[in-house]
Amino acid sequence: MSEGIALSVTVSGVSRLFGAGPDALLEAARIADAVGIDQLAFPDHLAIGPRTDRYPYGRFPFGADEPWLEPLTAMAAVAAATRRLRIASAVLVAPLRPALVLAKTLATLDWLSDGRLDLGVGVGWQPEEFDGAGVRFRGRGARLDDSLRACRVLWRDAPASFESATVRFRDLRCLPRPRQPGGIPIWFGGAASPRNAARIAELGAGWMPVSGGEAELGQGIAALREAFARAGRDPASLGVRAPVPAEGDLSRCLAALPALAGLGVTVAAFPLARFARAPGEVRPFLERLGRARP
User: Fold this and answer.
1) C or N terminus of the chain, fewer CB within 10 Å?
2) What is the torsional sign of CA 12, 53, 118, 231?
3) Mean pLDDT over each residue of the chain, to the nearest integer
4) What's the CATH code, domain 6-95+110-124+184-291?
5) What is the 3-state secondary structure (H, E, C) of 51-115?
């Protein structure tokens, strides 16, 4: 494995792997913590609508009855069960949550985890999910930007004031602050479009592409580094959490890590459900992945 690339496991396949209850999930988190895996990540859906054919990244990977844990709640439980590994959302549909609620919940989670939170965010793709939450689907990108700008102000200032087209408040104290100096690192999902590149350069620590081969990754990383330079930021500071290639073949995935690192990937993401088909396969996978560390 290439030096410097971190290992992240996305908690997926909950019904198949953790259907017995929370003890199995928390034990998997403890194993990941013990064997040296760097991060556990949780996806987000408040609900799944009937139109998964609209999923923008190919075939939707789970059935309609697959349970989706609320990620911030699950991450709090994992934080309490572990001591070292980082916890991440990959990704949180942030526009579904009001800015003040988002800022308070995330700061609390970072405080409880002693500064181990990585916030991955996206705009979402299901209109039905937004409708069910009573939130407009249209304009969600602008609300995402405004909410995250507001979070950064709330994490920094007390009292805090902020005004934008979609979020406004004055003289609020939203404490505790996050443990991490400068606030919680924010990572953005989606493509490296000009708009997304600009928001990552303004607000982000890194990029979480959902898919993509080496050529697409390389082009996206180059575009983001250019955006960082235009924003006066060091392009080398860009973080990239990218999914590993090779469906279900761990040996091939591990062999591909040096090439990913060479492209500029800093975190390699392993979807758990791709590598473990039954509960008894979770521990061996995590232990093997941990042994792959240099």
Assistant:
1) C
2) positive
3) 95
4) 3.20.20.30
5) CHHHCCCCCCCCCCCCCCCCHHHHHHHHHHHCCCCEEEEEEEEHHHCCHHHHHHHHHHHHHHCCC
